[in-house]
Write a structure and sequence with these properties.
single chain, 148 residues, 35% strand
Length: 148
């Protein structure tokens, strides 16, 4: 696994994002709600601040992903999942949470609301072509292999 240094400013009073286990890919990120909890009604969404500001190295992005337990148990997800924080962004990281559950969900200050994954990316150079190489799959998609 690669190690990369990322500059961070933490304006919250919470610990920095951290890994739950040694081999975890994502770090848990906490809500920063100094004015009090946010209640999300079913199908309601809100931008939840984190108090975090980062400076990624060139060639890296930060992905914001839902936490599986919150998704399964409460229907809580992220609208633009995964959310992308580009290397040249310097504003506060905010998380657009949505309640897809049937009950109100209260987001509390300090609650772990998402996972953050820092990863490399590539820029594409398009190579115009008149045809593509053939494969066994060809144009098959959208469940063409069935469910068995």
């Amino acid at each position: 696994m690669d190690r990369v240094k990322v500059k961070v400013i933490n304006k919250s009073h919470h610990e920095l994002p951290n890994y739950g286990t040694f081999e975890a890919a994502g770090m848990d990120v906490r809500a920063y709600l100094p004015l009090g909890p946010v209640v999300l009604k079913p199908l309601q969404r809100a931008l939840i601040p984190t108090g975090l500001f980062i400076q990624l190295p060139q060639g890296y992005e930060c992905q914001i992903r839902p936490r599986s337990g919150l998704a399964l148990n409460y229907g809580l997800s992220i609208v633009n999942s995964p959310g992308t924080v580009d290397a040249d962004y310097r504003g506060e990281i905010g998380v657009i949470l949505i309640n897809l559950g049937e009950e109100d969900f209260t987001v509390n200050d300090g609650e772990r609301i998402c996972q953050m994954v820092i990863t490399k990316y590539s820029h594409v150079t398009w190579e115009p072509a008149k045809e593509l190489d053939h494969t066994q799959r060809e144009k098959g998609g959208f469940g063409h292999t069935g469910t068995d």
